[in-house]
Protein backbone atom coordinates (compact mmCIF):
# COMPACT_ATOMS: atom_id res chain seq x y z
CA UNK A 1 0.00 0.00 0.00
CA UNK A 2 1.38 3.44 -0.91
CA UNK A 3 2.16 5.95 1.83
CA UNK A 4 -0.54 8.25 0.45
CA UNK A 5 -3.12 5.47 0.57
CA UNK A 6 -2.08 4.56 4.08
CA UNK A 7 -2.37 8.16 5.21
CA UNK A 8 -5.87 8.27 3.74
CA UNK A 9 -6.81 5.01 5.40
CA UNK A 10 -5.56 6.21 8.75
CA UNK A 11 -7.45 9.46 8.19
CA UNK A 12 -4.24 11.31 8.75
CA UNK A 13 -4.11 13.11 5.46
CA UNK A 14 -6.03 16.12 6.67
CA UNK A 15 -3.66 16.46 9.62
CA UNK A 16 -0.73 16.11 7.27
CA UNK A 17 -2.22 18.70 4.93
CA UNK A 18 -2.78 21.18 7.69
CA UNK A 19 0.58 20.80 9.35
CA UNK A 20 2.90 20.29 6.41
CA UNK A 21 1.17 22.21 3.58
CA UNK A 22 0.69 19.04 1.60
CA UNK A 23 0.62 19.62 -2.12
CA UNK A 24 0.29 16.71 -4.49
CA UNK A 25 2.66 18.10 -7.13
CA UNK A 26 6.05 16.47 -6.87
CA UNK A 27 8.00 19.66 -7.47
CA UNK A 28 6.16 21.48 -4.71
CA UNK A 29 6.99 18.63 -2.35
CA UNK A 30 10.62 18.81 -3.33
CA UNK A 31 10.72 22.52 -2.64
CA UNK A 32 9.92 21.67 0.95
CA UNK A 33 13.18 19.76 0.97
CA UNK A 34 15.57 21.81 -1.11
CA UNK A 35 15.45 25.46 -0.35
CA UNK A 36 18.85 26.69 -1.56
CA UNK A 37 18.68 29.15 -4.45
CA UNK A 38 16.03 27.43 -6.52
CA UNK A 39 14.23 30.54 -7.72
CA UNK A 40 15.53 33.26 -10.06
CA UNK A 41 15.33 35.87 -7.33
CA UNK A 42 17.32 33.95 -4.78
CA UNK A 43 19.88 32.81 -7.35
CA UNK A 44 20.58 36.39 -8.40
CA UNK A 45 21.26 37.34 -4.80
CA UNK A 46 23.34 34.29 -4.00
CA UNK A 47 27.01 33.56 -4.49
CA UNK A 48 27.41 32.85 -8.25
CA UNK A 49 29.27 29.61 -7.54
CA UNK A 50 26.86 28.34 -4.89
CA UNK A 51 25.20 25.14 -6.02
CA UNK A 52 21.50 25.40 -6.86
CA UNK A 53 19.02 22.60 -7.33
CA UNK A 54 19.62 22.26 -11.08
CA UNK A 55 23.37 22.07 -10.66
CA UNK A 56 22.88 19.60 -7.83
CA UNK A 57 20.94 17.33 -10.21
CA UNK A 58 23.81 17.42 -12.68
CA UNK A 59 26.56 17.05 -10.06
CA UNK A 60 24.56 14.31 -8.39
CA UNK A 61 24.60 12.33 -11.64
CA UNK A 62 28.35 12.94 -11.93
CA UNK A 63 28.88 11.82 -8.35
CA UNK A 64 26.82 8.67 -8.86
CA UNK A 65 28.90 7.92 -11.98
CA UNK A 66 32.07 8.47 -10.00
CA UNK A 67 30.86 6.17 -7.21
CA UNK A 68 29.88 3.38 -9.61
CA UNK A 69 33.18 3.72 -11.50
CA UNK A 70 35.06 3.54 -8.20
CA UNK A 71 33.14 0.47 -7.04
CA UNK A 72 33.75 -1.20 -10.41
CA UNK A 73 37.46 -0.43 -10.33
CA UNK A 74 38.65 -2.39 -7.30
CA UNK A 75 40.31 -5.11 -9.31
CA UNK A 76 42.46 -2.44 -11.02
CA UNK A 77 43.46 -0.84 -7.72
CA UNK A 78 45.79 -1.96 -4.95
CA UNK A 79 43.94 -3.13 -1.86
CA UNK A 80 46.19 -1.01 0.39
CA UNK A 81 47.19 2.35 -1.12
CA UNK A 82 50.73 2.93 -2.22
CA UNK A 83 51.28 6.10 -0.17
CA UNK A 84 53.49 7.10 2.71
CA UNK A 85 52.49 8.97 5.88
CA UNK A 86 52.12 12.68 5.11
CA UNK A 87 51.35 12.12 1.41
CA UNK A 88 48.20 14.27 1.43
CA UNK A 89 49.19 17.63 2.94
CA UNK A 90 51.39 18.74 0.00
CA UNK A 91 48.58 17.92 -2.45
CA UNK A 92 46.18 20.60 -1.20
CA UNK A 93 46.66 24.25 -0.19
CA UNK A 94 47.52 24.95 3.46
CA UNK A 95 44.47 27.24 3.86
CA UNK A 96 40.82 27.01 2.85
CA UNK A 97 39.98 29.00 -0.32
CA UNK A 98 38.77 32.57 0.25
CA UNK A 99 36.33 32.38 -2.68
CA UNK A 100 34.26 29.36 -3.63
CA UNK A 101 35.70 27.06 -6.28
CA UNK A 102 33.95 25.30 -9.12
CA UNK A 103 32.80 21.75 -8.46
CA UNK A 104 34.78 20.60 -11.51
CA UNK A 105 37.98 21.50 -9.70
CA UNK A 106 36.84 19.59 -6.65
CA UNK A 107 35.97 16.53 -8.74
CA UNK A 108 39.38 16.64 -10.38
CA UNK A 109 41.03 16.26 -6.96
CA UNK A 110 39.10 13.20 -5.86
CA UNK A 111 41.30 10.61 -7.57
CA UNK A 112 44.77 11.99 -6.71
CA UNK A 113 43.98 13.29 -3.22
CA UNK A 114 41.38 10.86 -1.93
CA UNK A 115 41.03 7.63 -3.88
CA UNK A 116 44.80 7.25 -4.28
CA UNK A 117 45.06 7.21 -0.50
CA UNK A 118 42.17 5.06 0.67
CA UNK A 119 42.46 1.47 1.80
CA UNK A 120 39.87 -0.26 -0.33
CA UNK A 121 37.79 -2.07 2.29
CA UNK A 122 35.47 -3.39 -0.41
CA UNK A 123 38.24 -4.76 -2.62
CA UNK A 124 37.77 -8.50 -3.20
CA UNK A 125 41.30 -9.03 -1.83
CA UNK A 126 40.57 -7.24 1.44
CA UNK A 127 40.48 -9.88 4.18
CA UNK A 128 41.43 -7.86 7.29
CA UNK A 129 39.64 -7.03 10.56
CA UNK A 130 35.93 -7.71 10.04
CA UNK A 131 33.91 -6.42 7.07
CA UNK A 132 32.40 -2.98 6.97
CA UNK A 133 29.24 -3.08 4.93
CA UNK A 134 28.17 -1.04 1.93
CA UNK A 135 25.52 -1.32 -0.74
CA UNK A 136 23.84 1.04 -3.17
CA UNK A 137 20.47 1.00 -1.32
CA UNK A 138 22.26 1.97 1.92
CA UNK A 139 24.10 4.81 0.16
CA UNK A 140 20.78 6.05 -1.24
CA UNK A 141 19.24 5.91 2.23
CA UNK A 142 22.10 7.99 3.60
CA UNK A 143 21.69 10.49 0.75
CA UNK A 144 18.09 11.03 1.73
CA UNK A 145 19.06 11.30 5.38
CA UNK A 146 21.62 13.98 4.46
CA UNK A 147 18.98 15.86 2.46
CA UNK A 148 16.32 15.75 5.16
CA UNK A 149 19.11 16.69 7.59
CA UNK A 150 16.96 16.57 10.68
CA UNK A 151 18.24 16.02 14.19
CA UNK A 152 15.89 13.44 15.64
CA UNK A 153 16.62 13.84 19.33
CA UNK A 154 12.95 13.76 20.32
CA UNK A 155 9.74 12.56 18.72
CA UNK A 156 8.64 16.09 17.77
CA UNK A 157 12.11 16.98 16.46
CA UNK A 158 11.25 14.65 13.59
CA UNK A 159 8.45 12.12 14.14
CA UNK A 160 9.38 10.00 11.11
CA UNK A 161 12.99 9.73 12.29
CA UNK A 162 11.90 8.29 15.64
CA UNK A 163 9.02 6.17 14.42
CA UNK A 164 10.83 4.57 11.48
CA UNK A 165 13.67 3.67 13.85
CA UNK A 166 11.32 1.92 16.29
CA UNK A 167 9.79 -0.10 13.46
CA UNK A 168 13.20 -0.92 11.94
CA UNK A 169 14.49 -2.12 15.31
CA UNK A 170 11.49 -4.44 15.56
CA UNK A 171 12.08 -5.63 11.97
CA UNK A 172 15.70 -6.40 12.82
CA UNK A 173 14.86 -8.18 16.08
CA UNK A 174 12.27 -10.34 14.33
CA UNK A 175 14.53 -11.08 11.35
CA UNK A 176 17.29 -12.23 13.73
CA UNK A 177 14.89 -14.32 15.83
CA UNK A 178 15.64 -12.30 18.98
CA UNK A 179 13.39 -12.77 22.01
CA UNK A 180 10.15 -10.77 22.17
CA UNK A 181 11.27 -8.75 25.16
CA UNK A 182 13.55 -6.73 22.81
CA UNK A 183 10.59 -5.63 20.67
CA UNK A 184 8.66 -2.40 21.04
CA UNK A 185 5.66 -4.21 19.61
CA UNK A 186 5.66 -6.70 22.49
CA UNK A 187 4.25 -3.92 24.65
CA UNK A 188 6.79 -4.37 27.45
CA UNK A 189 9.61 -2.10 28.56
CA UNK A 190 11.97 -3.28 25.86
CA UNK A 191 13.01 -1.87 22.51
CA UNK A 192 15.92 -1.05 20.27
CA UNK A 193 17.97 1.99 19.38
CA UNK A 194 20.59 2.72 16.74
CA UNK A 195 23.95 3.61 18.26
CA UNK A 196 26.95 4.70 16.23
CA UNK A 197 29.15 1.76 17.18
CA UNK A 198 29.29 -1.36 19.33
CA UNK A 199 31.70 0.55 21.59
CA UNK A 200 28.99 3.12 22.33
CA UNK A 201 26.50 0.33 22.94
CA UNK A 202 28.82 -1.26 25.53
CA UNK A 203 29.35 2.11 27.19
CA UNK A 204 25.60 2.72 27.43
CA UNK A 205 25.15 -0.70 29.01
CA UNK A 206 27.96 -0.05 31.49
CA UNK A 207 26.48 3.30 32.51
CA UNK A 208 22.99 1.82 32.81
CA UNK A 209 24.14 -1.15 34.89
CA UNK A 210 26.34 1.10 37.05
CA UNK A 211 23.59 3.57 37.85
CA UNK A 212 21.02 0.86 38.43
CA UNK A 213 23.39 -0.84 40.89
CA UNK A 214 24.22 2.39 42.72
CA UNK A 215 20.52 3.25 43.05
CA UNK A 216 19.83 -0.19 44.54
CA UNK A 217 22.80 0.06 46.91
CA UNK A 218 21.74 3.51 48.02
CA UNK A 219 18.25 2.25 48.73
CA UNK A 220 19.73 -0.46 50.98
CA UNK A 221 22.45 1.76 52.49
CA UNK A 222 21.13 5.34 52.53
CA UNK A 223 24.34 6.60 54.20
CA UNK A 224 26.49 5.27 51.32
CA UNK A 225 28.28 7.90 49.21
CA UNK A 226 27.98 7.23 45.44
CA UNK A 227 31.79 7.34 45.06
CA UNK A 228 32.30 4.80 47.80
CA UNK A 229 29.59 2.57 46.33
CA UNK A 230 31.06 2.93 42.84
CA UNK A 231 34.40 1.61 44.08
CA UNK A 232 32.71 -1.66 45.09
CA UNK A 233 31.18 -2.46 41.69
CA UNK A 234 32.69 -5.08 39.41
CA UNK A 235 31.89 -6.27 35.88
CA UNK A 236 33.05 -9.36 33.97
CA UNK A 237 33.96 -10.23 30.45
CA UNK A 238 36.14 -12.76 28.68
CA UNK A 239 39.86 -12.36 28.11
CA UNK A 240 39.01 -12.51 24.38
CA UNK A 241 36.46 -9.65 24.50
CA UNK A 242 36.97 -6.62 22.26
CA UNK A 243 39.10 -3.80 23.70
CA UNK A 244 36.03 -1.53 23.57
CA UNK A 245 34.61 -3.42 26.57
CA UNK A 246 37.66 -2.56 28.65
CA UNK A 247 37.45 1.05 27.46
CA UNK A 248 33.76 1.24 28.37
CA UNK A 249 34.63 0.01 31.87
CA UNK A 250 37.32 2.69 32.17
CA UNK A 251 34.96 5.41 31.00
CA UNK A 252 32.28 4.24 33.41
CA UNK A 253 34.82 3.99 36.27
CA UNK A 254 33.80 0.40 36.94
CA UNK A 255 36.42 -2.26 37.64
CA UNK A 256 36.34 -5.14 35.17
CA UNK A 257 37.75 -8.65 35.31
CA UNK A 258 38.74 -10.45 32.11
CA UNK A 259 38.00 -14.09 32.81
CA UNK A 260 39.77 -17.12 31.40
CA UNK A 261 38.09 -18.98 28.57
CA UNK A 262 37.95 -22.71 27.81
CA UNK A 263 39.91 -24.50 25.09
CA UNK A 264 37.50 -23.13 22.46
CA UNK A 265 38.08 -19.54 23.71
CA UNK A 266 34.56 -19.48 25.10
CA UNK A 267 33.70 -17.91 28.46
CA UNK A 268 31.82 -20.52 30.48
CA UNK A 269 29.49 -20.36 33.44
CA UNK A 270 31.92 -21.93 35.91
CA UNK A 271 34.50 -19.18 35.39
CA UNK A 272 31.86 -16.50 35.99
CA UNK A 273 30.41 -18.31 39.00
CA UNK A 274 33.82 -18.59 40.63
CA UNK A 275 34.68 -14.93 39.96
CA UNK A 276 31.38 -13.74 41.44
CA UNK A 277 31.92 -15.85 44.58
CA UNK A 278 35.49 -14.54 45.00
CA UNK A 279 34.41 -10.94 44.58
CA UNK A 280 31.41 -11.16 46.88
CA UNK A 281 33.74 -12.63 49.53
CA UNK A 282 35.87 -9.47 49.15
CA UNK A 283 32.82 -7.23 49.64
CA UNK A 284 32.53 -6.29 45.98
CA UNK A 285 29.22 -5.98 44.13
CA UNK A 286 29.05 -7.83 40.77
CA UNK A 287 26.80 -5.90 38.39
CA UNK A 288 27.36 -6.90 34.77
CA UNK A 289 28.69 -9.59 32.47
CA UNK A 290 29.45 -8.80 28.83
CA UNK A 291 29.45 -11.95 26.73
CA UNK A 292 30.74 -11.99 23.17
CA UNK A 293 29.23 -13.87 20.26
CA UNK A 294 31.95 -13.84 17.62
CA UNK A 295 35.12 -12.53 19.27
CA UNK A 296 37.22 -10.15 17.22
CA UNK A 297 40.33 -12.30 17.34
CA UNK A 298 38.94 -15.64 16.29
CA UNK A 299 35.12 -15.50 16.15
CA UNK A 300 34.74 -17.61 19.28
CA UNK A 301 31.41 -17.74 21.09
CA UNK A 302 30.85 -17.35 24.82
CA UNK A 303 28.29 -19.68 26.35
CA UNK A 304 25.37 -17.28 26.69
CA UNK A 305 23.06 -19.90 28.19
CA UNK A 306 25.41 -20.66 31.08
CA UNK A 307 26.36 -17.02 31.61
CA UNK A 308 22.77 -15.81 31.32
CA UNK A 309 21.53 -18.34 33.87
CA UNK A 310 24.14 -17.21 36.38
CA UNK A 311 23.46 -13.51 35.72
CA UNK A 312 19.71 -14.01 36.17
CA UNK A 313 20.24 -15.95 39.39
CA UNK A 314 22.83 -13.55 40.83
CA UNK A 315 21.15 -10.32 39.73
CA UNK A 316 23.75 -9.25 37.14
CA UNK A 317 22.95 -7.49 33.86
CA UNK A 318 23.82 -9.83 30.98
CA UNK A 319 24.86 -8.01 27.79
CA UNK A 320 25.72 -9.78 24.54
CA UNK A 321 28.15 -8.15 22.12
CA UNK A 322 27.62 -9.74 18.70
CA UNK A 323 29.07 -6.84 16.69
CA UNK A 324 30.09 -8.99 13.70
CA UNK A 325 28.36 -12.34 14.20
CA UNK A 326 24.91 -10.90 14.95
CA UNK A 327 24.04 -10.52 11.27
CA UNK A 328 24.43 -14.29 10.82
CA UNK A 329 21.35 -14.78 13.02
CA UNK A 330 19.37 -13.84 9.91
CA UNK A 331 19.97 -17.46 8.86
CA UNK A 332 18.05 -19.92 11.07
CA UNK A 333 20.63 -22.67 10.49
CA UNK A 334 23.36 -20.42 11.98
CA UNK A 335 21.53 -19.57 15.22
CA UNK A 336 23.02 -22.34 17.40
CA UNK A 337 25.80 -20.10 18.61
CA UNK A 338 23.24 -17.76 20.21
CA UNK A 339 21.64 -20.46 22.33
CA UNK A 340 20.34 -18.87 25.55
CA UNK A 341 19.92 -15.40 24.05
CA UNK A 342 16.49 -15.15 25.73
CA UNK A 343 18.36 -14.84 29.04
CA UNK A 344 20.16 -11.65 27.95
CA UNK A 345 19.17 -8.20 29.19
CA UNK A 346 20.67 -6.46 26.18
CA UNK A 347 22.06 -7.45 22.79
CA UNK A 348 24.03 -5.52 20.24
CA UNK A 349 25.13 -6.13 16.67
CA UNK A 350 26.43 -3.96 13.85
CA UNK A 351 24.36 -4.03 10.64
CA UNK A 352 27.23 -1.86 9.38
CA UNK A 353 29.55 -4.82 9.61
CA UNK A 354 27.87 -7.64 7.74
CA UNK A 355 24.33 -6.63 6.80
CA UNK A 356 24.99 -4.35 3.82
CA UNK A 357 24.15 -1.17 5.78
CA UNK A 358 26.82 1.53 5.63
CA UNK A 359 28.67 2.78 8.72
CA UNK A 360 27.50 3.96 11.21
CA UNK A 361 24.70 1.71 12.35
CA UNK A 362 24.91 -0.39 15.48
CA UNK A 363 21.69 -1.91 16.78
CA UNK A 364 21.28 -2.10 20.58
CA UNK A 365 18.29 -3.93 22.05
CA UNK A 366 17.27 -3.60 25.69
CA UNK A 367 14.94 -5.75 27.79
CA UNK A 368 14.12 -2.77 30.01
CA UNK A 369 14.95 0.51 28.31
CA UNK A 370 13.90 2.50 31.38
CA UNK A 371 17.19 1.49 33.03
CA UNK A 372 18.95 3.75 30.55
CA UNK A 373 16.23 6.23 29.72
CA UNK A 374 15.30 7.29 33.23
CA UNK A 375 18.86 7.49 34.43
CA UNK A 376 20.11 9.73 31.66
CA UNK A 377 17.11 11.98 31.25
CA UNK A 378 17.91 15.66 31.37
CA UNK A 379 14.95 17.74 30.26
CA UNK A 380 15.52 21.44 29.67
CA UNK A 381 12.41 23.38 28.68
CA UNK A 382 13.59 23.87 25.11
CA UNK A 383 13.63 20.09 24.53
CA UNK A 384 10.30 19.34 26.18
CA UNK A 385 7.16 18.60 24.16
CA UNK A 386 3.65 17.46 24.89
CA UNK A 387 3.56 14.20 22.91
CA UNK A 388 3.91 10.87 24.67
CA UNK A 389 3.88 7.24 23.64
CA UNK A 390 7.01 7.18 21.48
CA UNK A 391 10.65 7.20 22.58
CA UNK A 392 12.63 10.41 22.81
CA UNK A 393 15.81 8.78 21.60
CA UNK A 394 18.11 11.43 23.07
CA UNK A 395 17.66 9.60 26.39
CA UNK A 396 18.91 6.35 24.87
CA UNK A 397 22.34 7.59 23.82
CA UNK A 398 25.23 9.83 24.84
CA UNK A 399 24.97 12.68 22.29
CA UNK A 400 21.87 14.81 21.90
CA UNK A 401 21.87 14.92 18.10
CA UNK A 402 21.20 11.90 15.93
CA UNK A 403 21.00 11.23 12.21
CA UNK A 404 18.11 9.60 10.37
CA UNK A 405 19.96 6.28 10.21
CA UNK A 406 16.94 4.01 10.06
CA UNK A 407 16.40 5.08 6.43
CA UNK A 408 19.35 3.04 5.27
CA UNK A 409 18.13 -0.03 7.19
CA UNK A 410 14.69 0.40 5.62
CA UNK A 411 16.10 0.71 2.10
CA UNK A 412 18.44 -2.26 2.55
CA UNK A 413 15.83 -4.57 4.06
CA UNK A 414 13.30 -3.70 1.38
CA UNK A 415 15.68 -3.89 -1.57
CA UNK A 416 17.36 -7.17 -0.58
CA UNK A 417 14.56 -8.75 1.44
CA UNK A 418 15.44 -11.11 4.25
CA UNK A 419 16.16 -13.86 1.72
CA UNK A 420 18.65 -11.64 -0.16
CA UNK A 421 20.46 -10.84 3.09
CA UNK A 422 20.48 -14.52 4.05
CA UNK A 423 21.96 -15.42 0.66
CA UNK A 424 24.70 -12.83 1.20
CA UNK A 425 25.67 -14.24 4.63
CA UNK A 426 25.52 -17.82 3.35
CA UNK A 427 27.75 -17.01 0.41
CA UNK A 428 30.42 -15.53 2.69
CA UNK A 429 30.25 -18.51 5.04
CA UNK A 430 30.66 -20.88 2.13
CA UNK A 431 33.63 -18.89 0.74
CA UNK A 432 35.28 -19.08 4.19
CA UNK A 433 34.79 -22.87 4.20
CA UNK A 434 36.33 -23.02 0.73
CA UNK A 435 39.38 -21.13 1.98
CA UNK A 436 39.63 -23.40 5.04
CA UNK A 437 39.60 -26.51 2.84
CA UNK A 438 42.34 -25.08 0.61
CA UNK A 439 44.53 -24.19 3.60
CA UNK A 440 44.06 -27.58 5.24
CA UNK A 441 44.99 -29.37 2.02
CA UNK A 442 48.59 -28.31 2.69
CA UNK A 443 49.99 -30.25 5.67
CA UNK A 444 52.23 -27.34 6.73
CA UNK A 445 49.19 -25.35 7.91
CA UNK A 446 46.63 -25.68 10.69
CA UNK A 447 43.32 -23.95 11.39
CA UNK A 448 43.17 -22.90 15.04
CA UNK A 449 39.47 -22.10 15.55
CA UNK A 450 36.35 -23.78 14.25
CA UNK A 451 35.17 -21.95 11.12
CA UNK A 452 31.56 -21.01 11.86
CA UNK A 453 31.09 -17.79 9.89
CA UNK A 454 33.31 -15.77 7.55
CA UNK A 455 36.63 -15.90 9.46
CA UNK A 456 39.38 -18.51 9.08
CA UNK A 457 42.18 -18.43 11.69
CA UNK A 458 45.22 -20.28 10.36
CA UNK A 459 48.95 -20.60 10.94
CA UNK A 460 52.01 -22.54 9.94
CA UNK A 461 52.41 -25.46 12.33
CA UNK A 462 55.17 -25.02 14.90
CA UNK A 463 56.50 -21.89 16.56
CA UNK A 464 55.00 -18.42 16.22
CA UNK A 465 58.11 -17.17 14.39
CA UNK A 466 57.25 -19.01 11.16
CA UNK A 467 53.76 -17.45 11.02
CA UNK A 468 55.14 -14.03 11.97
CA UNK A 469 57.57 -14.29 9.05
CA UNK A 470 54.70 -15.35 6.77
CA UNK A 471 52.72 -12.30 7.86
CA UNK A 472 55.66 -9.97 7.14
CA UNK A 473 56.06 -11.49 3.67
CA UNK A 474 52.35 -11.03 2.90
CA UNK A 475 52.48 -7.42 4.11
CA UNK A 476 55.42 -6.71 1.80
CA UNK A 477 53.73 -8.49 -1.09
CA UNK A 478 50.57 -6.34 -0.67
CA UNK A 479 48.38 -8.27 -3.10
CA UNK A 480 46.05 -9.33 -0.32
CA UNK A 481 45.35 -7.60 2.98
CA UNK A 482 44.84 -9.52 6.21
CA UNK A 483 45.90 -9.06 9.83
CA UNK A 484 47.30 -11.28 12.57
CA UNK A 485 46.18 -12.01 16.11
CA UNK A 486 47.13 -14.03 19.20
CA UNK A 487 45.17 -16.01 21.76
CA UNK A 488 45.49 -14.51 25.23
CA UNK A 489 45.61 -17.83 27.03
CA UNK A 490 48.12 -19.76 24.90
CA UNK A 491 50.02 -16.96 23.17
CA UNK A 492 49.48 -18.80 19.87
CA UNK A 493 49.94 -16.39 16.97
CA UNK A 494 47.82 -16.81 13.84
CA UNK A 495 46.59 -15.05 10.71
CA UNK A 496 42.97 -14.01 10.27
CA UNK A 497 41.44 -14.44 6.82
CA UNK A 498 38.00 -12.82 6.62
CA UNK A 499 35.61 -12.82 3.67
CA UNK A 500 34.74 -9.13 3.58
CA UNK A 501 33.85 -7.79 0.14
CA UNK A 502 30.48 -8.12 -1.55
CA UNK A 503 32.53 -8.66 -4.73
CA UNK A 504 34.52 -11.58 -3.27
CA UNK A 505 34.12 -14.73 -5.38
CA UNK A 506 35.59 -18.20 -5.40
CA UNK A 507 38.32 -17.01 -7.80
CA UNK A 508 39.41 -14.43 -5.18
CA UNK A 509 39.59 -17.13 -2.51
CA UNK A 510 41.79 -19.21 -4.79
CA UNK A 511 43.90 -16.15 -5.60
CA UNK A 512 44.42 -15.33 -1.90
CA UNK A 513 45.33 -18.95 -1.23
CA UNK A 514 47.88 -18.95 -4.08
CA UNK A 515 49.48 -15.74 -2.74
CA UNK A 516 49.76 -17.31 0.73
CA UNK A 517 51.26 -20.52 -0.71
CA UNK A 518 53.77 -18.51 -2.74
CA UNK A 519 54.81 -16.64 0.40
CA UNK A 520 55.11 -19.88 2.40
CA UNK A 521 57.19 -21.49 -0.36
CA UNK A 522 59.47 -18.45 -0.53
CA UNK A 523 60.03 -18.66 3.22
CA UNK A 524 60.69 -22.43 3.04
CA UNK A 525 63.52 -21.76 0.59
N1 LIG B 1 32.88 -5.94 19.60
C1 LIG B 1 33.34 -6.85 18.74
C2 LIG B 1 33.11 -8.30 19.02
C3 LIG B 1 34.01 -6.45 17.58
O1 LIG B 1 34.47 -7.37 16.72
C4 LIG B 1 34.22 -5.08 17.34
C5 LIG B 1 34.94 -4.63 16.14
O2 LIG B 1 35.32 -5.36 15.29
C6 LIG B 1 33.72 -4.17 18.28
C7 LIG B 1 33.06 -4.63 19.40
C8 LIG B 1 33.89 -2.69 18.09
O3 LIG B 1 33.04 -2.28 17.10
P1 LIG B 1 32.73 -0.73 16.83
O4 LIG B 1 33.79 -0.25 15.90
O5 LIG B 1 31.37 -0.72 16.23
O6 LIG B 1 32.79 -0.02 18.14
Task: Please give the structural blueprint.
Layout: H1 3-9, H2 13-20, H3 26-33, H4 40-45, H5 53-71, H6 103-114, H7 136-148, H8 159-175, E1 191-195, H9 198-220, H10 226-230, E2 233-238, H11 243-252, E3 255-259, H12 269-281, E4 285-292, H13 304-314, E5 317-321, E6 346-349, H14 351-354, E7 362-366, H15 370-376, H16 406-440, E8 445-447, E9 455-460, H17 464-477, E10 483-486, E11 493-498, H18 506-524
Helix pairs in contact: 7-16, 8-16, 9-11, 9-15, 12-13, 16-18, 17-18
Bound molecules: pyridoxal-5'-phosphate.
What does this structure look like?
With 525 residues, the chain is of the alpha/beta class. The protein has a domain at 141-413: Aspartate Aminotransferase, domain 2 (3-Layer(aba) Sandwich). The chain contains 18 helices and eleven strands. It has helices spanning 3-9, 13-20, 26-33, 40-45, 53-71, 103-114, 136-148, 159-175, 198-220, 226-230, 243-252, 269-281, 304-314, 351-354, 370-376, 406-440, 464-477, 506-524, and strands at residues 191-195, 233-238, 255-259, 285-292, 317-321, 346-349, 362-366, 445-447, 455-460, 483-486, 493-498. The strands form two sheets. It has a seven-stranded mixed β-sheet with strand order 1-7-6-5-4-2-3, with helices on both faces. Helix 11 links the parallel strand 2 and strand 3. Helix 9 (198-220) packs parallel to helix 11, helix 16 (406-440) packs across helix 18 (506-524) and helix 17 crosses helix 18 (506-524). The structure holds pyridoxal-5'-phosphate (PLP). Residues 130, 197-199, 242, 244, 292, 294-296, 321, 323-324, 350, 362 line the site of pyridoxal-5'-phosphate. Pyridoxal-5'-phosphate (PLP) is lined by residues 130, 197-199, 242, 244, 292, 294-296, 321, 323-324, 350, 362. Its cofactor is pyridoxal 5'-phosphate. It holds the Pfam family Pyridoxal_deC.
